[in-house]
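Slide 14.
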Amino acid sequence: MRRYFCPHCANEVHFDNTVCVKCSSNLAYSSSIDGFRVSAAPSLSVSTSDHYCANRDLIGCNWVVEHNEQSQFCVSCRHTLVIPDLSAAPNVERWARLEGAKRLLFYGLQKFHLPLDGRGDKLNQGLRFELKSDLLPVVGQQTKTMTGHKAGVITINIMEADDDVREQHRVEMGEPYRTLIGHFRHEVGHYYWDRLVADAGQMDAFRAMFGDERISYTDALQRHYQSGALLGWETRYVSSYASSHPWEDFAETWAHYFHIVDGLETAQSYAIGAPAPREEVYRGPYESKDFAALINAWVPLTVAMNAMNRSIGNHDFYPFILSDPISAKLQFIHNLIHNFGA
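Slide 15: predicted structure.
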């Protein structure tokens, strides 16, 4: 994402800041201006028409509820239908971490002007989130909450907010990296497959690019977990998990497209890497319709960042290879997003 500054003293602030560390101004992010507003009040009023999200004091949500939004909650928080059981003290911090990652997700969705609510006869199937823990219905038995998507509802197991748990899962599943924002971007890809592919008459084009999703999803995942990824998956899929089924291929590719665009916006905002080759990209990667220019800017940046991480003993910043087949899938996502509503 881009850089932000305190409107009062011009000190640089971070996306999740609620207070400027230099002048102590109360800060709130407004998506309508893609910037911060300040208020002398410690709690609600940001202006006469906007106010702080009701989750500000509890979990540090620093977003504004815009004047035209009839809610106590910001656009990100109000899409959460189920929150964790807060009687367990660690769950408050887990919830805060999950909502922080979700605000990053909504930042990108709004910049792409993607639909968040249902339409027509699917008004009840807008984008919704349930943040749940594992359940113990009876002594000695545990019902595990599975992270996933169904009919617009994205469920996240709140234990993914714990770094040690997430790292354990990453190692067990042989993943190069595993992050909260990666979870959200992947799962939301399933939601937008419904909206931008199935509901938009793009099934033939999707199948030509990703394969036939009508093959058994359950059987495909069972084969993947029992036998591993397809041989030579690296040349055609952005991750091993993407090779399990066309739906997962789409969701993994969708998530990586968001990684690329948001990563480029951050790099350009801090003047990292070579200047953007085209004026359209320079105005902002989220606005660019030139896919080739995005990839041409991204690849050398990832090479440099990988080298930087290795030089200080960290894992690669971006441990993926964008072959021609993978780039073609990324361009398919790019076109879906930019053609939406056209």
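Speaker note: DSSP finds ten helices and twelve strands in the chain.
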